[in-house]
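Summary for the funding panel

The consortium committed to producing paired sequence-structure records for every protein in the target list. Below we show the first two records in order, beginning with the earlier of the two.
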Amino acid sequence: MSNDFKHTDDNGDEDIVSRTQIKREAEALQKIGEFLVDMSKNQLALVPLEGELSAAIVIARRLKNREGKRRQLQYIGKLMREIDITPITDAIDKIKLQSQRQRGLRKEAEVWRDKMIEQGQGVIEELLTTYPDGDRQHLRQLLRTVIKENKDNAKKIEAGKTNTVNTQSLKLFNVIRETLEFS
């Protein structure tokens, strides 16, 4: 029997591993490699990558040819079989968790902004009860400008101008998101 099908655990015990199991593990590593290739530069900088693996990921990010990229991903999977991927998977999990948190904050900030625009100043008090670190005066000022901007944009739309942008609404959203994030 070939050594390819023997697996040694931490205690030095050898287990026989099936070809199917080996293939599943290789595909899982290749998927992790694909995730690494698809990450943004900032996210990738947070992952502890070394030498040849790092270079292989950089090359894969540049490849446009589908077949070439597929082969490069297989190579990345092969390189990952030779190293301890625990720090890499831990970093990926942390990045995914941060991304989920950011999406949740954005969604919650959108809800608060829309509620403020619809219901007015009372919602600011409700927000600050839940998140006391917010700037009441700044939020009130922004809400007033958003409401004024919305009225102005409604007049422009009636006049036939369809190129209206709600910049103040975006500013209000950003202030609410920061309030949620730092409270």
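The next record, for a separate protein in the list, is shown here:
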Amino acid sequence: MNSTESDPQPAPYLVALRIAKKKVVVIGGGNIGTGKIETLLSAQPRLVVVDPTPSDRVRDLAERGALELRQRRFCPLDLFGSKLVVAATGDSRTNRRIRLWARLTRALVNAVDDPANCDVTVPSVVRRGPATIAISTGGATPAGARYLREELSAVIDDVLPADCGHVLEAARSVRHQLRKEGTYRFEYPRWRESFFEPAFSALRSGAPTHVMAIANDFIAGERAKVSAKRVGSVVLVGAGPAGDDLITIRGARALATADVVVYDRLADASLLAYAPAAAERIPVGKGKGFGHTQCDINALLIDRARQGQRVVRLKGGDPFVFGRGGEEVSALRNASIEIEVVPGVSSAIAAAALSGIPVTDRRCASSFTVITGHQGSSATGPLPAPSNGTLVVLMAATTAAGVATRLLAQGRPASEPVAFVHRAGSSDQALFVTRLDQASVDGCPFVSPTVMIVGDVVNYQRADPGPVSSEVRSVGPSRVSI
């Protein structure tokens, strides 16, 4: 298999193309082209088919006036004024030529079973009233898309009754009425719980006439909410370390219902996909010497909640472990804003665990202390004494040398092992192991985010624990389960 073909392909962006009364050209009226024509008919385009030997079905459709048949070989002028061209020739060279001519007319091209010559691919679909469920393989295997459609049709039938179009049309009517009154608001949980769930239950129980009553109740409820001030809230969610699979289930659920997501620089950006597409995403990344102030962030959270929005504040790690989450909670409470806290996996523990380092091990450490790099490099305040357990230093990328120098000055041995874990939990996680005296000279080899771990427990990252030399013992990606 060609390595290029086996590499993961970008996901297609699916759109619903409105082609009613628009010119659509199908080049090739054989069996494959006829199948495409059958699916195009429901979209009601102005259909033109070009083929010297079309199928009987195509001829019949032409006689009935459902399409225009040009019974000859294709010529470039056939594409003039078209919005979509379907190349069903079965020949890649011909498809390529069609696509080149189509570019001059700015028409989109779907070359059947020929992804390289496609501007668009056509998914297999399951239709239930106005609902269309698309199943696409991105052009990788049309037969696979058809198989999935056939297999899923029975499942869809169990979930969506045959007359589900009645509910969807009622929803359209409700939405139109609310928009007309100026009271429409897209609140998916509300639509689901108060409209769709009871409406589909009515269909399944054989009472379709109840759907309009449910629709009227929904409209009345929305009108009542306009007169009452909508109350917003804030959910403070710990995103965990790098890696979108380390967020808690409760945190992911909070994101799924957000109107606004206010997120940190250290929160994995892929977590934003958990939020609804319509949710606003606001970056408030902070770093050493740059970014939004905490006062700005507090004011933003309060303002959006007072507008009646459900705000998710997404913070890297755990929001209360050197994350200033406590300050945000205090500000919100002082403003009488409803606040919920969802804890997260802190990199203070996760970075060590993901690198195979037990922060406490009965053989050498019965406790661990967590500090920040700024705190550890400061000239004031005591640091944990030698043999007093493991020291975990967060935000150590630029302060590691200062932290190591202070620890040496306070009596920790020069040969004590030190580990630096970069982007813990991500696909490019990296581990660097050295000695304390070497760290005081060289500092941290990585940029932020990096966690520094000091103590004999670092030795147990490998299978044969023992003294570490001043040389690098391990560097590169490390995903170790312990």
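Regarding this second record: The first helix runs from residue 3 to 6. The first strand starts at residue 23 and ends at 27.
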